[in-house]
What does this fold into?
Amino acid sequence: MTLVYVEHQDGRPDDASLQAIALVREITGGAPLHALLAGPGAEDAAAGLGAHGVATAHIAEHEALASHAPVALARCIGELIERLSPAAVAAAGSERGNEVLAHAAALGDLPLAANCVAAEAGDPLTVTRIRWGGSLLEDARLHGPVKLLTVAPHTVEAAEVGAGPATLERFTPSLADADLVVRVVETVEQSSEGGVNLADARFVVSCGRGAGSPEGFAPAEELAALLGGAVGCSRAVTIAGWRSHTDQVGQTGTKIAPEVYLACGISGATQHMAGCKGAKRIIAVNVDPEAPIIANADYAVIGDLHEVIPAITAELRKAGAG
Amino acid sequence: MNILVCAKRVPMTGGTIVLTEDEQSIQTRHLGFTISPHEECGVEEAVRLIEANGGESVVLALGPSEAEEQLRDAMALGVDRAILLETADEVDGQATAAAIVAAIEAERAAGVEFDLIFFGNESADSGNYQVGIRVAHALGRPCVTGVKGITVQDGRARCEQETASGRDVYDVPLPAVITVKEGLNLPRYPSVPGRLRAKRKPLAASAPERRDAGVEKLRLRLPPGQGKQAEILGHGPEAAPAVVEVLRRAGLVT
It folds into this structure.
């Protein structure tokens, strides 16, 4: 059998976890697929997993699992590995999925392949995983008595397979005090100050060093406001101290997925492209027709962002937007 | 207070990745190298904490002998000394962690205990998401990951993670391992005197024991769909109507 650690929110499994289930289903070869869930709402979230091919959902019950506790969760995985001897254990390649599986890997001294996009059954397991935030692929053999892997989000489609509901099995993991040292003790909600969250925005306009100064972002701000979108920037801009890191689109910044991404004065380094590959359409504005971003964009305007952005705003106003 | 910060040497890939003929690595003949972005912030945080609290900061890199360049860079920013674990080939997450643990135990044998050990949340190149966590377990220390805010007080570290809706806070006793993310701070630029001092700071190199890879790299390849050519909408401000048309088709303008 195989086991998938399923993250969930508001009583629903996360998409990235369902995608991990879909990839693991490919390598189970008909063996039963089990899931592990913990925390508030776990039972509700487990209810729909049968449709995705999960035969048994294990619900870890422990008061310490009310808030995120990665080592405790890894102990739960360890207990199920002992009890069920799965061939593979997987999770979403989300921040927490990667974290929990790395703890499980450390506890069991097992190899872990992070952010896989494909896997082929066998021992060793053959996997393809992403590097450089998705700009490069690695084919690898995953060894070990139990194969631990995470699945890169949005690289595999979740799919319902029409199976009946999963059997629920509750268990209380045995946790030591040391397993609970690392856990969320406080959650601070932050209002987005009326602005649009970069990660969720349907329109994003970013500027690179070509903006010239912090003030050079004013036209982009105006355009974003007109379309109810958000303003982003390249890493060069945050390093220069012109914008806060929360505005940075990229491998080490925010990953965006807008309907349209307007990338202005941005060369298109892999660091940046890793953050915007989720965009449906990319329009590059650049003075250099040879800039790498032109080869990664759907549309391009050859020109200076200081002239092009205000012209777009003016054209939208003429068309009656905003 | 003593702080160890682990930093990785990675190429600055620019716009297009080119692979070597044997498909084992990136063609770096024309590329510069840097410290992986998350770890740059780890270096800066270590320097700031030692400036505020006193003690010693140490930077460690596992990689080729050329990684001395990144270790000197870190020392130019204020780190006191460096440890280089020299490996000719890339090693996987388990082997990397084992080598670092051995180095930390050697430091302990020499009387140096690290109150804090910083890692990047994941390296820019291989992105294994596990080395810091493995080291923490081997040393029996707590590990908080993906940290973008650290306050050290009374023998504890309060660590903040950024979430979709705000921040999650952890509070762990020292000694601890913390994996950090870019945005934790804005790293300083090295000064000329800093660079000169860095040349004379101690750097200890050794070769870690080899072990078989649990994740055995077969080959690297570029993802499909590279190098599409954009449709040119126009030149300069005259292209604005065509841009608005794209926005309209995307349902952003009614």
In short: DSSP finds eight helices and 17 strands in chain A. Chain A has a mean pLDDT of 95. Chain A has two domains: 2-180, 203-318.
